[in-house]
């Protein structure tokens, strides 16, 4: 008896779904879009943090020495504040401290670049003492510059430069070509560099099309040789050293600077972007809530559109248990199928969006679809399917066939 009623309820639910296939398809798509949106936005929230951690870990540095947060200074040449002074001297001092293996000053600036000295683009610039710590994917690194020697900028410049692929495409150049680079148009016209390689390192730091060149030469072409500035200094420790111990030692010796480990630097970066992260978290929560509501609305609306058929069966004496089972089956089927479609589309869409994001800002895998996030999306679809089925079955119990079929 129970088996026959269950088969009848399932058969009726399937008949309702196949009777109006367009409406059923739209309901499934509605659920799929809601689940997809909630899943992708949640993946963005987790991906940003994970990507940040991976970038710090892959940088190959243990400690970060800064003079405060990196700020833009649009009214100055170079466009970025440089809180560290006498960077070559400071880096040498840090390198001589026990358990410190290397110390390297980094300078971030914005520069003009042109392949012909007439049509200029604005890009980011990274200044480093040597190309040993820079990843080169094509060509070679620049030769060690002897431009800065004995505290003076009077040595010969290498006039060699590395571009990331986006910058090379932006100005339509390749390895072996020359470009004009400088913090002002006048300085750029006076400084021609030969492209010796392609490197993504600068854009990984700045997230924009970026060139990399010797530190002292970037200081020269941006008019910053007066104070030997740097944006920050990175340090690596010896293999057997405790990073925390070295950090405390450096902080005691240089109390005016902020000394941070990778984790602490990432945390400081996150705290400075607290408003945006809070907004992202709110957006993710809102996406889940809206996805939940839209899915519930789509399923209940689909059921309401079939309500006359349920009323007719109730008028003919069909038990409310059978009708409630049919309602739950109908909404559950659409919810689960829509959730499966949404989750199935999430991975290829995430891959496509990651490709676009990588091309635009240089960061890879910002949208990270972990099994936990996919499980969350599936659980959302399943839960909403059950809730909408319960809501539909309760509605069936309250149906007055005479009123409904007038």
UniProtKB/TrEMBL annotation:
Its Gene Ontology cellular component terms are: plasma membrane
Domain of life the protein comes from = Archaea
Q: What is its main location?
A: membrane
Q: Residue ranges of the MacB-like periplasmic core domain?
A: 24-252
Record flagged with keyword 4Fe-4S: no
Q: Which PANTHER family does this entry report, sorted A to Z?
A: ABC TRANSPORTER, MEMBRANE PROTEIN (PTHR43738), HEMIN TRANSPORT SYSTEM PERMEASE PROTEIN HRTB-RELATED (PTHR43738:SF1)
Name this protein carries in UniProt: ABC-type transport system permease protein
Q: What lineage is this protein's organism placed in?
A: Archaea, Methanobacteriati, Methanobacteriota, Stenosarchaea group, Halobacteria
